[in-house]
């Protein structure tokens, strides 16, 4: 599992480590690690020139020392000191090291054109403008230099891409767009959350000897090697009932295919037994595609409610199906609720519940439950001026959710007590009292109709086997995403193919776990 820690945790761990170490040792380790990564990238690309963008804090200090190492190794190195105070405005020890190594030092006072030319010549750019002490956004002089970076240069962000909110809660358009981020000690929330993940690029963690293992993480991400420990594997004493029966309330005369996708996914994920509650057309299709499924209501260990459910339909079959859906939501059994089922969510549910909206569904649900737009989510550290200018009392929109996915997912989790799995390129899993989980395993090809129905089938299977909602949701998102990546293999995919890819994917992930060292 990748664990990201808050800035406060990192500062405390840094202080504890510094108390035990000689002055400057942590920064020396950070700079050495940074220079090693930079050297590896320059070796790969055949690059020879390095430019460091240096801000006022210790992030600039790391950068100055790293550039000094690179100059000593023979690379042509320059730095641009961004503070208006010039040489007096940056880390003194770092500047001394850079001077001593023969690094060319440029000041902002030289003017934007001259500096843009310096930056444009770099094969590798070290972004040391700000780190965890930074406020979101770039100042104009920094933004101009960042714009001047050559498209082919490797942009290496020091600790985090400058301009991003270190907590990863507020999005920021004006930030460095890194090819790679070298972070120290532990990842920070921004590296794993939607607001910062894309600008972070590849994430490399350098060990500098700070201790955070015992401290709760702010954000977690399950990795392939976590699957074996979490995935329900049957034992000798199991039967189909003890493994977990899933009741799938899905499919309608209007959207029959969703039931096939959900049922196929559950069967492929190895559900003990599947009961389908649907109207005649989806029942007929599922009979063909998933002969293992049993039709009709009955005893189950968990429910999956919603794929292709038509809550507007009024014929007798649909009404009977909707009655089962409402009864499932009113029961004390675990439920995963998706698509049409979300329209039936009325508020808090005490039993284990996973809601799996995309941004538009989350917006509609929050609006219906009485939340309004025009303010940021409860989890947001700052409020965006654009959002504040909106009139209070208007409906929450999908754009509101996209601007602050974590804040809105937290709001729904607080309103319903449920685990909220917010779908997107990075899928968030939010449960009150737990570290946020963030999974980014899928290729963009997964953004295709029906993909969500497959996810519901997987998460339902995991709930039926007894997994906690937080684990079922994150593990389901991981397996869904990894399967999509394998099925896509760089090209288009269809939802049914993802469903059919689950079995070999889970088998291979379990085999990895068996061969991994204990
Ligand atoms: N923690 C650890 O274990 C270790 C941490 N290490 C390193 O220290 C870094 C943290 O250093 P830090 O605390 O000095 O803060 P940092 O990120 O350099 O920025 C603060 C400065 O930037 C300025 N500023 C703020 N916002 C701005 C903006 N938008 N645009 C422009 N300027 C802005 C602000 O000045 P102000 O404008 O407020 O006068 C202030 O002076 C950390 O990320 C890591 O790299 C390593 O050495 C090893 C061990
Ligand atoms: N850009 C993207 N990159 C990777 N995965 C994505 C992207 N956009 C959406 N997804 C994933 O694709 C799936 C789409 O599900 P959903 O929107 O519910 O589709 P449907 O309702 O048609 O089944 C979700 O699992 C979501 O996380
Ligand atoms: K930085």
UniProtKB/TrEMBL annotation:
Catalytic class of the enzyme: lyase
Ranges for region Disordered: 370-400
Cofactor note (record): Binds 1 potassium ion per subunit.
Domain YjeF N-terminal: 10-216
Catalyses which reaction(s): (6R)-NADPHX = (6S)-NADPHX; (6S)-NADPHX + ADP = AMP + phosphate + NADPH + H(+); (6S)-NADHX + ADP = AMP + phosphate + NADH + H(+); (6R)-NADHX = (6S)-NADHX
Keywords: ATP-binding, Isomerase, Lyase, Metal-binding, Multifunctional enzyme, NAD, NADP, Nucleotide-binding, Potassium
Highest taxon of source: Bacteria
Pfam families cross-referenced by the UniProt entry: Carb_kinase, YjeF_N
Residue intervals of the YjeF C-terminal domain: 223-509
Bias-annotated ranges (Low complexity): 378-387
Residues annotated for AMP binding in this entry: 423-427, 452
InterPro entries: Carbohydrate_kinase_pred_CS, CARKD, Nnr, Ribokinase-like, YjeF_N_dom, YjeF_N_dom_sf
SUPFAM superfamilies: Ribokinase-like (SSF53613), YjeF N-terminal domain-like (SSF64153)
Binding-site residues for (6S)-NADPHX, renumbered to this chain: 258, 308, 358, 453
Protein EC: 4.2.1.136
Keyword NAD: yes
Biological function: Bifunctional enzyme that catalyzes the epimerization of the S- and R-forms of NAD(P)HX and the dehydration of the S-form of NAD(P)HX at the expense of ADP, which is converted to AMP. This allows the repair of both epimers of NAD(P)HX, a damaged form of NAD(P)H that is a result of enzymatic or heat-dependent hydration. Catalyzes the dehydration of the S-form of NAD(P)HX at the expense of ADP, which is converted to AMP. Together with NAD(P)HX epimerase, which catalyzes the epimerization of the S- and R-forms, the enzyme allows the repair of both epimers of NAD(P)HX, a damaged form of NAD(P)H that is a result of enzymatic or heat-dependent hydration.
Similarity annotation: In the C-terminal section; belongs to the NnrD/CARKD family.
Protein name in the entry: ADP-dependent (S)-NAD(P)H-hydrate dehydratase
Record gene name: nnrD
């Amino acid at each position: 599992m990748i664990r990201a820690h808050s800035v406060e945790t990192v500062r405390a761990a840094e202080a504890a480590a510094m108390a035990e170490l000689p002055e400057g040792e942590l920064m020396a380790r950070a700079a050495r690690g940074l220079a090693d990564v930079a050297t590896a990238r320059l070796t790969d690309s055949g690059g020879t020139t390095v430019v460091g963008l240096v801000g006022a804090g210790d992030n600039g200090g790391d950068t100055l020392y790293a550039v000094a190492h690179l100059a000593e190794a023979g690379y042509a190195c320059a730095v641009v000191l961004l503070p208006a105070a010039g040489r007096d405005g940056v880390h003194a020890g770092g500047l001394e090291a850079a001077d001593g190594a023969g690094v060319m030092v440029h000041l902002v006072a030289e003017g934007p054109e001259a500096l843009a030319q310096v930056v444009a010549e770099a094969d590798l750019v070290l972004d040391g403008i700000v780190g965890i002490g930074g406020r979101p956004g770039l100042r104009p002089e920094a933004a101009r230099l960042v714009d001047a970076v050559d498209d082919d240069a490797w942009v290496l962000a020091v600790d985090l891409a400058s301009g991003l909110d270190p907590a990863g809660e507020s999005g920021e358009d004006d930030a460095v767009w890194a090819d790679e981020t070298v972070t120290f000690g532990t990842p920070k929330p921004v590296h794993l959350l939607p607001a910062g993940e894309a600008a972070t690029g590849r994430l490399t963690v350098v060990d500098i000897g700070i201790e955070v293992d015992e401290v709760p993480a702010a954000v977690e991400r399950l990795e392939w090697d976590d699957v074996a420990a979490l995935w329900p594997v049957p034992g000798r004493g199991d039967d189909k009932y003890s493994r977990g029966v899933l009741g799938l309330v899905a499919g309608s005369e209007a959207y029959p295919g969703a039931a096939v996708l959900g049922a196929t996914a559950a069967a492929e994920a190895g559900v003990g037994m599947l009961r389908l509650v649907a109207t005649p057309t989806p029942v007929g299709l599922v009979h063909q595609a998933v002969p293992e499924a049993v039709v009709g209501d009955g005893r189950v260990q968990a429910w999956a409610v919603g794929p292709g459910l038509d809550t507007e339909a009024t014929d007798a079959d649909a009404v009977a199906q909707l009655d089962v859906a409402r009864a499932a939501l009113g029961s004390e059994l675990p439920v995963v609720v998706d698509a049409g089922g979300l329209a039936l969510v009325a508020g808090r549910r005490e039993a284990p519940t996973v809601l799996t909206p995309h941004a538009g569904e989350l917006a509609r649900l929050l609006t219906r439950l009485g939340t309004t737009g025009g303010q940021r989510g409860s989890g947001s550290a700052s409020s965006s001026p654009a959002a504040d200018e909106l009139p209070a009392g208007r409906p929450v929109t999908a754009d509101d959710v996209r601007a602050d996915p974590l804040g809105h997912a937290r709001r729904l989790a607080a309103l319903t007590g449920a685990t909220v799995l917010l779908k997107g390129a990075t899928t968030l899993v939010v449960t009150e009292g737990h570290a946020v989980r963030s999974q980014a395993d899928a290729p963009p090809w997964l953004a295709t109709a029906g993909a969500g129905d497959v996810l519901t089938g997987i998460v339902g299977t995991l709930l039926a086997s007894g997994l906690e909602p937080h684990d079922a949701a994150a593990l389901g998102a991981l397996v869904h995403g990894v399967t999509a990546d394998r099925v896509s293999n760089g090209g288009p995919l269809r939802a049914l193919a993802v469903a059919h890819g689950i079995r070999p994917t889970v088998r291979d992930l379990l085999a990895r776990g068996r061969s991994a060292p204990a």
